[in-house]
Design a protein that fits this description.
12 helices, single chain, elongated, OligosaccharylTrfase_OST3/OST6, membrane, Dolichyl-diphosphooligosaccharide--protein glycosyltransferase subunit 3, transmembrane, transmembrane helix
């Protein structure tokens, strides 16, 4: 056989049997915001980490899978990998550059793989659930399921835990270099200063009227109720978890309420806030407004109407508990009964 004919096959063989160097892996990752994207066709080449540590996030972002944690932590993982890569290439960041280090473990490449594009890779790994965050010591990644360490998503509420986990596995890496730095917008800063100055000027000009309003008991009652609704509706949960507004189920229908009590969509928070506001308004009316009505007939009709509204709205609230957990045993009105 002519040697020229077998040369392309030889090159292809060398491509898939030669380990990927740290410099080559960095070059590939530099085109994808610091991430090495692993799919079903490229995994055999990309995971050959001969002289560097390899961390990979395994996920399934397709809506048909319905993986809540995948959508929660995927974007944050990508942001961390991008921030690490930027610090690595910025001499002013102060981060130790491990490219010339004798310790292979101190060099790290961040990988990312989605089930829909890497089903073969997931099958080789024996993955039965996602997300997974795996750490491989140098030379271990080709052994697939024989990873060095795995991060547990069961007890984590934010990214702080797995930035510490990454730093514990990678020598010389300080968690602060994995913290995502959000640049300050000068235009927003100047706008905030201008609004602050204008607000102070208005407060000073109308200080007498403002002081009278602040002394009103009703103002503080409404303000207190508003704070209570804000705190119990789930706004802080959405802020901390950066929850998405809604999601589509396997049939493509929009879902506003997440199953279970450990997750809550943004739309769910807004709906619950409206429900609590209506209930609070009805209660406030019964206590503060209706008793002051002079005509008994008007007072009776208004009281019955408000109580009926409360019954309807509270019936809906009870059914929300059924949407969150099918084992919730109570119902108020069958008109809202979920199937």
């Amino acid at each position: 056989m002519n040697m020229l004919n077998i040369w392309p096959f030889l090159l292809l063989f060398l491509q898939y049997t030669t380990a990927l160097s740290y410099e080559e892996a960095l070059r590939i990752a530099s085109k994808k915001d610091g991430l090495l994207y692993v799919n079903g066709k490229s995994y055999e080449k990309l995971i050959k980490n001969e002289n560097y540590s390899f961390v990979i996030f395994l996920t399934a972002e397709d809506a048909r899978v319905g993986c809540t944690l995948c959508h929660d932590f995927g974007p944050k993982y990508k942001a961390i990998a991008k921030q690490y890569f930027e610090n690595l290439n910025d001499p002013q960041s102060g981060m130790y550059n491990p490219i010339d280090s004798d310790n292979d473990k101190s060099r790290v490449i961040f990988g990312f793989s989605d089930y829909m594009s890497a089903q073969t890779y997931f099958e080789k790994l024996g993955m039965t659930s996602v997300p997974k965050l795996l750490y491989y010591e140098p030379g271990k990644a080709p052994q697939l399921a024989d990873f060095t360490n795995e991060f547990s998503f069961l007890t984590v509420e934010n990214t702080d835990s797995y930035t510490r986990w990454l730093a514990q596995n990678i020598p010389g890496l300080d968690p602060k270099f994995l913290e995502v730095q959000i640049p300050v917008s000068k235009s927003k800063l100047y706008t905030s200063i201008a609004i602050g100055i204008a607000s102070l000027a208005l407060l000073f000009k109308f200080r007498s009227s403002i002081f009278k309003v602040v002394q009103q008991k009703t103002v503080w009652e409404v303000f207190s109720l508003s704070l209570i609704i804000l705190f119990i509706s789930g706004y802080m949960f959405n802020q901390i978890r950066n929850s998405e507004t809604s999601r589509k189920d396997k049939e493509g229908n929009v879902v506003y309420f997440a199953k279970g009590f450990n997750m809550q969509f943004g739309a769910e928070t807004q709906i619950i806030s409206i429900v609590y506001t209506i209930l609070s308004g009805c209660l406030f009316s019964l206590i503060k407004i209706l008793p002051n009505l002079k005509k008994s007939t008007t007072k009776l009709v208004a009281s019955v109407t408000v109580c009926f509204i409360m019954f309807i709205v509270y019936s809906y609230l009870v059914e929300v508990y059924h949407l969150k957990s099918s084992t919730y045993p109570f119902h108020l009105w069958n008109a809202f009964k979920s199937s």
